[in-house]
Amino acid sequence: MSPHAVAIVAIALLLVLSAVMALSETAFVRANRIRLLTLAEEGDKRADRVLRLLEQPEQTLNGVLLVLLACQMVSATLLGTVLEPAFGTAGVAVGMVIEIVVVFTFAEVAPKTFAVQHPEQAVMRVSGLLVFLTRFGPLRLLTRGFIGLANIVLPGRGLRRGPFVTEEEILTMADVAAQESSIETEERELIHSIFEFGDTVVREVMVPRPDMVAVDADATVDEAIRVAIAAGKSRLPAYNETTDDIVGLVFLKDLVTRSGSGEGTEPVRTMLRPARFVPESKRVAELLREMQTEKFHMAIGIDEHGGTAGLVTMEDLLEEIVGEITDEYDVDEPGIERLPDGALRVPGRTPIDEVNELLETELPQEEWDTVGGLVFNALGHVPEEGETARVDGLDFSAERMQGRRIVSVRIARVAPARRAHGDEHQSAGGEEQLHDAPAAAERRE
User: Fold this and answer.
1) Which of 32, 353, 361, 28 is nearest to 177 (CA)?
2) Can you give the pLDDT at residue 417?
3) How far is CA 24 from the centre of its chain?
4) Distances (CA, A) of 237 to 212, 256, 268
5) In order of start, what are the domains of the chain with their CATH numbers?
6) Measured distance CA(383)–CA(397) in Å, rounded
């Protein structure tokens, strides 16, 4: 064969190899790890090989990209040498045009489109080639050398490992899967809840101290039974003088046993069980593991000063994942309610992140967790019923108060005209003017 014929055969082979490399690159990047895990569990050895490569994907990708670039560069050079004798300098230009058209059409678009449409099928077909490129010693040395050179020339600390899939990407995948009906809406919500669970602390889920149902440690057994039955509780914290000093837990089954034995007038103090105390800043995922391993169902949350902040149960933690759990003894409490005028009525204990999700806002929650806490901090004082604070274009009205506690809050968006003038003028009905915290402080002074 003539040198030109050999060059043409080599160009064809290089273009085929280039197409295979382009398919391998796209398929390897786009392959779904979960589907590959399923196939591997069914006994597909090719899927198992790909999964092992995905543990350190940069090692495989670097080799594939280097071979792909080499194939395209060498084929372009050979094509130029073939055409240059016949066409002169113009032959190089003709060769470039032919190379671009052929490479783009047959060695880029076609294989990569197939890999995008069938990523798992494609990556398993080339799994043997990928393993060879990853383990081929000379190729690994070349890629490491080039990467080392890049780390020297370019600023920064060089290339870092993963994570190659972030939490946001997984949540987006769940959203897309729900939209495409690949998973149910409830499954999507469960996935989101699991990720949120990892970032939640005890303070966000516990029953605050004012809402705790507790019994005096000096109360009699019969009195404690009445309190537990009235509240529908099987466990109660016991305190000395105030709930800021929890001394133990009392179980309803122990109370009933003592009462049935004729000890109904004995003080609860004689039958207390140890209480578990945890910081209110403790992550609920860690607390749930402790509850499972150490077999306890209730813990007392304490603040930074060592005082009682609230009470958390295993049910409270599980509800963060699966949603509200109710039984025949639970009393329905008013939840979030949409009003006819578009406003929201929410309990004061409603977490800020729930309101952010419903109203698509970004209310501040660094210093407080609930809507009631936001209103307290915005006003700078204990509000009266009907008093309103404005935060980020929303009016928060304390609809119902119970002592110094905000029970119910009405949230409404501020109309554009009122947003410009509402902080300076009273409403037409003679209601108290809307104000933010600085304006309220000036009037009190």
Assistant:
1) 32
2) 54
3) 32
4) 9, 16, 11
5) 3-153 (no CATH), 167-199 (no CATH), 202-322 (3.10.580.10), 337-444 (3.30.465.10)
6) 9
Q: Rounded to whole angstroms, how far apart are CA atoms 401 and 380? A: 16
Say which amino acid occupies 438: P
User: What are 238's two structure tokens?
Assistant: 């016991």
One-letter amino acid of 45: K
Q: In what order do the strands lie in the sheet with 344-347?
A: 337-338, 344-347, 405-413, 394-402, 388-391
Tokens 């049935």 found at:
260
For position 31, what pLDDT does the model report? 87
Residue 431: pLDDT band with limits 50, 70, 90: very low
What order of strands is seen across the sheet that includes strand 207-208? 207-208, 308-313, 298-302, 277-279
Least confident of 126-130, 279-283, 390-394: 390-394
Please list, in sequence order, all residues whose beta carbon lies within 8 angstroms of the beta carbon of residue 109, skipping any fewer than 6 positions away: none
CA distance 173 to 176: 5
With contact defined as beta carbons under 8 Å apart, do 394 and 413 qualify?
A: yes
Q: How far apart are CA 50 and CA 28, in angstroms?
A: 8
CA pair distance 152, 158, nearest whole angstrom: 8
Residue 367 structure tokens: 């210093």
